[in-house]
Design brief:
Helix content is about 40%, strand content about 15%. With about 300 residues, it is an alpha+beta fold.
């Protein structure tokens, strides 16, 4: 039998590329780690290549972008200057907007960017302030802000796409001079380090470093990496394997539960007092609510192991 999956994975693997980076990129300038942004300029060839799984996500995002542009045009919207290169040489900053939408009445042009995302992120990002909720969405605002500044526009627009349902929604962004100032100051810092062949201080080590940074292997944060020990315990291994099987479902359950509670139910409830109880049925599922209080207390300094299973 033909191993179709293997052939598709081989195709995806062949699409993994690491490209030279000679300027600061609008798409990444919102990253919180300046050291990483310097590495992109000075050590791009040392970047860890994306995994096949991550490349699949990149490919899917590109396809959603093409489909959305096509749908915008089919809906009668005028799109101009798609992927037009923008350059702010004084900051060594470049970018490529997905395009500009033309207002049919005023003929005003607005830079736009298409962002596809999981359904759980999609429901959580509904205003420009919601982009602060996730490390990767924080970069989106800076990216569009660069496009707005480079073209002298007071408004820009995100077209968000739910990867699960294909649903679109629009978030308009206003020009923020203070944020643009911070972006340019970051560019100047990066450019100074590149010119001097120096590096900024490392940020505090966090999960984002180990999971997403392509330069962790050369940055080497002050973290002790010990040779792992191997445990031979059939029962424990069986439990771990089962945990890995249900982990995606458990994550989906938790995210759905939080979304339902925080975004659909709580906004409908009036403030109560301790001891108040309510219940309601959503379909055949009963939802119970009670007003509770929590005592505040100061946490004393302590040290302890944190445990992360898998990955």
């Amino acid at each position: 039998m033909i191993d179709i999956v293997e052939k598709l994975d081989t195709l995806t693997e062949s699409q993994i590329k690491v490209f030279p980076c000679h300027t600061n990129r609008a798409s990444s300038i919102g990253d919180g780690c300046v050291r990483k942004l310097v590495y992109y300029r000075t050590n791009w060839q040392d970047a860890k290549k994306p995994s096949v799984g991550l490349q699949r996500i990149f490919n899917l995002g590109n396809e959603f972008e093409k489909i959305t542009v096509m749908r915008l045009m089919q809906a009668g919207l005028q799109i101009i200057r798609a992927q037009e290169p923008l350059n702010l040489p004084e900051y060594e900053l470049t970018g490529h907007p997905d395009g500009f939408l033309v207002d049919p009445e005023t003929k005003e042009e607005y830079p736009f960017d298409i962002k596809s995302m999981s359904p759980f992120v999609f429901v959580k990002v509904n205003s420009e302030f919601d982009f602060e909720k996730f490390s990767w969405t924080k970069k989106y605002i800076a990216q569009l802000m660069v496009y707005m500044h480079a073209t002298g526009k007071e408004k820009g627009v995100f077209i968000m796409v739910n990867k699960s349902t294909g649903q679109e929604k629009v978030i308009w962004i206003s020009y923020n001079a203070e944020l643009v100032k911070e972006i340019f100051e970051k560019c100047e810092s990066i450019n100074s380090h590149v010119k001097a062949k120096t590096l900024p201080e490392r940020i505090s080590y966090c999960d984002e470093c180990s999971e997403y940074c392509p330069f962790l292997h050369i940055c080497m944060p002050d973290v002790k990496f010990e040779t792992p020990e191997f445990i031979v315990d059939a029962e424990l291994e069986s439990m771990i394997n089962r945990m890995n099987e249900i982990k995606p479902i458990a994550k989906e359950y938790k995210e759905l539960e939080e979304t339902i509670k925080d975004e659909r139910i709580k906004p409908c409830l009036a403030e109560g007092k301790v001891g108040d109880r309510r219940s309601m049925f959503i379909g055949t599922t009963e939802v119970k609510m009670s007003w509770t209080s929590k005592k505040g207390y100061e946490v004393k300094p302590t040290s302890f192991w944190t445990i992360k299973i898998g990955g």
